[in-house]
């Protein structure tokens, strides 16, 4: 196996794994959630063993794949524009190029892509990536190819992902797939299937491989990491049917998180995403106990109105959510809490919107991902609820949410001024080649002069200034998190 260093568009050094003897080139783009980016690494690994090395140059690719997101209409429109670009390149420069659509959009639209998007040669859903070599053979034989069958077992736990566009410092490790929650606005259960967890031994083996390769931080990934549950295999919903012995020896998320923290005390650990109804106090105590687990919890709420939460089929109330926030602040006082919020869900009134703003005032999130409601075909909201909030009202409410979040973000970053924070150097600052950039434990981007430090160093930084989204400071020395040989 070879490693080729290339420069990204941002000037960062990226490590591309290549296999000598491979004669074909794969260009792959990912959109949407972190799980899609993690899945693309699985796809690249499968194709690496089938003759494809990855490339960053679209025009030279034999195979172009786009890993898609269906969570919002805007994401789908972005993918369609990319397909138009692929089509133009194929016509003008590389007529032998094959193009495929992966991921959630592929699962949702299925054969429609082959019929409407004339450039598309194959369509592959999130659970069918191991079938890619067979599908590519079909394409080479002149046939369209499609596999979007949802699996009840597939976790790709037996595949060592190729780290695409890697900085050699941070990496994703997938621990669950699918979701059982059935929020009325969300397509994930329909595009990624039922929830199932990955065997702990395979997770630990992947982390060990990353550790040996010098990675400094991992993010444990899942649509709902807090409901991670390994009892020997199968779907989470079948746990009640297993033996008492299987239940007694089952591994939950709190146990998995502690296993990783204990085994790799010099490895920084993050996780995403959590659902409020599944986050238990035991997880909070594990986070508080181990300094290498980042003090940041992304905790989507979507709305501050109990009525809207019920319409969304969110399995928590406003009061339950605020109780959880109180527990987090009590057990992990320095924890940053971030949010997802939807403005303009069907039937949302001004009073409901005000409830959301009031909730934000009560929590004062560090930052958030905020969107206006986008009806997704196939969801319960799409089938049963009228999208009755006018677009201009959605936009105004979203702007109010964003403006309030900006105020709260400024409050949260200002709390760090005068403090020393531990930062993992991840990349060069976008604004100055003289500065490094990396996140602190609370996941706030921090910039400081490079001096003699290098990518992958854990550095203590004295914060002297801030914006609403960035901490600014000066390094005071290496952190204890550095491996002994690096200090």
Automatic annotation (TrEMBL):
Residue span, Radical SAM core domain: 165-412
Catalytic reactions on record: N(6)-dimethylallyladenosine(37) in tRNA + (sulfur carrier)-SH + AH2 + 2 S-adenosyl-L-methionine = 2-methylsulfanyl-N(6)-dimethylallyladenosine(37) in tRNA + (sulfur carrier)-H + 5'-deoxyadenosine + L-methionine + A + S-adenosyl-L-homocysteine + 2 H(+)
Main subcellular location of this protein, as a coarse class: cytoplasm
CC cofactor: [4Fe-4S] cluster
One cellular component (GO) term of this entry: cytosol
Entry EC number(s): 2.8.4.3
Cofactor: binding comment: Binds 2 [4Fe-4S] clusters. One cluster is coordinated with 3 cysteines and an exchangeable S-adenosyl-L-methionine.
Residue span, TRAM domain: 414-477
InterPro entries found in the cross-reference section: Elp3/MiaA/NifB-like_rSAM (IPR006638), Methylthiotransferase (IPR005839), Methylthiotransferase_CS (IPR020612), Methylthiotransferase_N (IPR013848), Methylthiotransferase_N_sf (IPR038135), MiaB_methiolase (IPR006463), rSAM (IPR007197), rSAM_horseshoe (IPR023404)
MTTase N-terminal domain sequence ranges: 24-141
Record's keyword terms, sorted: 4Fe-4S, Cytoplasm, Iron, Iron-sulfur, Metal-binding, S-adenosyl-L-methionine, Transferase, tRNA processing
Classification via Pfam families: Radical_SAM, TRAM, UPF0004
Domain of life: Bacteria
SUPFAM superfamilies documented for this protein: Radical SAM enzymes
Gene3D superfamilies: Methylthiotransferase, N-terminal domain (3.40.50.12160), tm_1862 like domain (3.80.30.20)
Binding site for [4Fe-4S] cluster 2: 179, 183, 186
Localization annotation: Cytoplasm
Gene Ontology molecular function, alphabetical: 4 iron, 4 sulfur cluster binding; metal ion binding; tRNA-2-methylthio-N(6)-dimethylallyladenosine(37) synthase activity
Binding site for [4Fe-4S] cluster 1: 33, 69, 104
Subunit structure comment from the entry: Monomer.
Function description: Catalyzes the methylthiolation of N6-(dimethylallyl)adenosine (i(6)A), leading to the formation of 2-methylthio-N6-(dimethylallyl)adenosine (ms(2)i(6)A) at position 37 in tRNAs that read codons beginning with uridine.
Similarity field: Belongs to the methylthiotransferase family. MiaB subfamily.
Protein name from the UniProt record: tRNA-2-methylthio-N(6)-dimethylallyladenosine synthase
């Amino acid at each position: 196996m070879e490693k080729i260093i290339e420069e990204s568009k941002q000037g960062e050094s990226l490590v591309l794994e290549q296999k000598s003897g491979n004669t074909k080139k794969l260009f792959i783009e990912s959109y949407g959630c972190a799980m899609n980016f993690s899945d693309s690494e699985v796809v690249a690994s499968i194709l690496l063993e089938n003759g494809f090395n990855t490339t960053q140059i679209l025009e030279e690719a034999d195979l172009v794949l786009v890993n898609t997101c269906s969570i919002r209409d805007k994401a789908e429109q972005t993918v369609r524009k990319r397909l138009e670009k692929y089509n133009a390149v194929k016509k003008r420069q590389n007529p032998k190029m094959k193009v495929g659509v992966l991921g959630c959009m592929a699962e949702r639209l299925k054969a429609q892509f082959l019929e409407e998007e004339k450039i598309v040669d194959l369509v592959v859903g999130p659970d069918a990536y191991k079938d890619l070599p067979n599908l590519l053979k079909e394409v080479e034989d002149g046939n369209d190819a499609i596999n979007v069958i949802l699996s009840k077992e597939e976790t790709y736990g037996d595949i060592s992902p190729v780290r695409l566009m890697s900085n050699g410092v941070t990496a994703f490790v997938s621990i669950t797939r699918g979701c059982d929650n059935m929020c009325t606005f969300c397509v994930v259960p329909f595009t990624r299937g039922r929830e199932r967890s990955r065997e702990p031994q395979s997770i630990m083996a992947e982390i060990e491989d990353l550790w040996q390769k010098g990675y400094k931080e991992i993010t444990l990934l899942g649509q709902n990491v807090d409901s991670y549950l390994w009892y020997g295999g199968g779907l989470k919903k079948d746990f009640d049917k297993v033996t008492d012995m299987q239940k007694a020896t089952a591994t939950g998320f709190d146990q998995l998180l502690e296993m990783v923290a204990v085994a790799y005390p010099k490895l920084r650990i993050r996780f995403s995403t959590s659902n409020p109804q599944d986050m238990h106090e035991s997880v909070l105590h594990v986070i508080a106990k181990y300094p290498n687990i980042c003090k940041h919890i992304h905790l989507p709420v979507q709305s501050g109105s109990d009525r809207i939460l019920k319409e969304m089929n969110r399995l928590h109330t406003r009061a339950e959510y605020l109780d959880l926030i109180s527990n987090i602040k009590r057990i992990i006082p320095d924890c940053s809490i971030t949010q997802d919020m939807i403005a303009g869900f069907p039937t949302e009134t001004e009073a409901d919107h005000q409830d959301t703003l009031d909730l934000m005032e009560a929590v004062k999130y560090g930052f958030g991902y905020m969107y206006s409601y986008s009806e997704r075909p196939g969801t319960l909201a799409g089938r049963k609820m009228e999208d009755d909030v006018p677009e201009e009202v959605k936009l105004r409410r979203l702007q109010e949410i964003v403006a309030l979040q900006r105020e709260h973000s400024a409050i949260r970053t200002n709390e760090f001024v005068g403090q020393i924070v531990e930062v993992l150097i991840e990349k060069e600052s976008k604004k100055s080649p003289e500065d490094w950039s990396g996140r602190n434990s609370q996941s706030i981007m921090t910039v400081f002069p490079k001096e003699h430090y290098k990518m992958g160093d854990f550095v203590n930084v004295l914060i002297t200034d801030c914006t609403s989204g960035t901490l600014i400071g000066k390094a005071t020395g290496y952190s204890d998190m550095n491996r002994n040989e690096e200090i």
